[in-house]
Automatic annotation (TrEMBL):
Top-level lineage group: Bacteria
GO molecular function: transmembrane transporter activity
PANTHER family: FE(3+) DICITRATE TRANSPORT SYSTEM PERMEASE PROTEIN FECC-RELATED, FERRIC ENTEROBACTIN TRANSPORT SYSTEM PERMEASE PROTEIN
InterPro entries in alphabetical order: ABC_BtuC-like (IPR037294), ABC_transptr_permease_BtuC (IPR000522)
Single Gene Ontology BP annotation: siderophore-iron import into cell
Listed transmembrane segments: 23-43, 73-93, 105-126, 132-151, 163-183, 203-226, 247-272, 292-311, 323-340
Intracellular or extracellular location(s): Cell membrane
Family from the record: Belongs to the binding-protein-dependent transport system permease family. FecCD subfamily.
One Gene Ontology term, aspect cellular component: plasma membrane
Membrane topology per record: Multi-pass membrane protein
Protein name: Iron complex transport system permease protein
């Protein structure tokens, strides 16, 4: 591990947590998730009382408040699923690259999915989120391979700093290509821009059903890589000495993260910073062990995005601010603080 991502002695002691502390935090995170899910169905352009919420969960749809709850339920479920996918994919990417600044947005994965969807919209006329899934996953995969390939060039191979720089440069280049592809097509620009902001306002049970198999597949792949990621954190040479197939671990874990990120981007748009913030928060709670970190990142990502969606509906009623804007407002200062704390000594 490099100086960029290796905690100092006191930090290591801080990040070790006994099982009882981890279980206590697990209960706290689950309780907070339940609370924000209830807030998600209760708050919006209309504030719904507890009686109407329970009646709507029982199948009632007789009043405007109950109808509002019925409409908000799939939105809440989608926010939980997308947040969980982004939180988990961010934790896995940081483990694969051994880079605390790794994030699906920073490494160009989101932008690769966005460019693929932009090309598909302008060339073959894709128009719904459920049609974007395979295209988004393919674009995310190509961007991931490209960034890792560029970051592997030169002396020292794929260092964390080189991968982060390659991801930032690739994201900037792909963003320009997105504009070049969409700008001449006024007939698709409005639809693309509404998707590009990032949010879960267009949720439906059909769209959830279409994306759910991909999210489950990505979740299973990532969780199965938890123990090998612990070995990878020790360094490639030591992991290989322990009998791990380093290249296979990286490829498999990255595949799971790409599937999660691509599917989440297809259904909700490119939502930034969730995958960056959540793993750092979870390491402070449960430590560095990926067997604990990955499940916690999944739950905490769900909490963060659902909370951001609720905030976006409350602060500007009766209008909404998309969750992607809220996460960017939260994530940008957090990212700056990480960079300042790490001091990027390798530069």
């Amino acid at each position: 591990m490099t100086q960029l991502d290796t905690p100092s002695g006191p930090d290591v002691a801080l990040l070790r947590r006994p099982a009882r502390v981890r279980l206590a935090w697990l209960l706290v995170v689950v309780a907070v998730l339940v609370a924000v899910m209830l807030a998600s169905v209760a708050f919006g352009s209309r504030i719904v009382g507890f009686d109407d919420i329970t009646a709507a969960f029982g199948g009632a749809n007789d009043t405007l408040d109950q109808a509002a709850v019925v409409k908000r339920i799939p939105r809440t479920i989608l926010a939980v699923l997308v947040g969980a996918a982004l939180g988990l994919s961010g934790a896995v990417m940081q483990g694969v690259t051994r880079n605390p600044l790794a994030d699906p947005g920073i490494l160009g994965v989101n932008m690769g999915a966005m460019l693929a969807i932009a090309v598909a919209m302008t060339t073959i006329g894709l128009s719904t989120a459920t049609q974007y899934i395979w295209v988004a996953i393919a674009g995310a995969a190509v961007a991931t391979v490209f960034v890792y390939g560029v970051g592997s060039l030169g002396r020292g191979g794929a260092t964390p700093l080189k991968i982060a720089l390659a991801g930032a440069a690739t994201s900037a280049a792909l963003a320009s290509l997105v504009v070049a592809v969409v700008l001449p097509r006024g007939d698709v620009a409005e639809n693309f821009q509404s998707w590009q902001v990032g949010g879960v306002g267009g949720a439906s049970w059909e769209s959830i059903g279409n994306v759910l198999p991909f999210l489950i597949a990505g979740l299973v792949i990532c969780l199965l890589c938890a123990r090998p990621l612990n070995s990878l954190a020790l360094g490639d040479d030591l992991a290989a000495g322990l009998g791990e197939r380093v290249a296979l671990i990286r490829a498999t874990a990255a595949l799971g993260a790409v599937v999660l990120c691509g599917a989440a981007t297809a259904i909700a748009g490119p939502i930034a910073f969730v995958g960056l913030i959540v793993p750092h928060m979870c390491r402070l709670l449960v430590g560095l062990d990926h067997r604990w970190l990955l499940p916690f990142a999944t739950l905490t990502g769900a909490v963060l995005l659902t909370f951001a969606d609720v905030i976006g509906r409350v602060v500007n009623r009766p209008d909404e601010i998309e969750a992607g804007i809220i996460t960017a407002l939260i994530g940008a200062p957090f990212f700056i603080s990480i960079v300042r704390r790490q001091k990027v000594r390798e530069l």
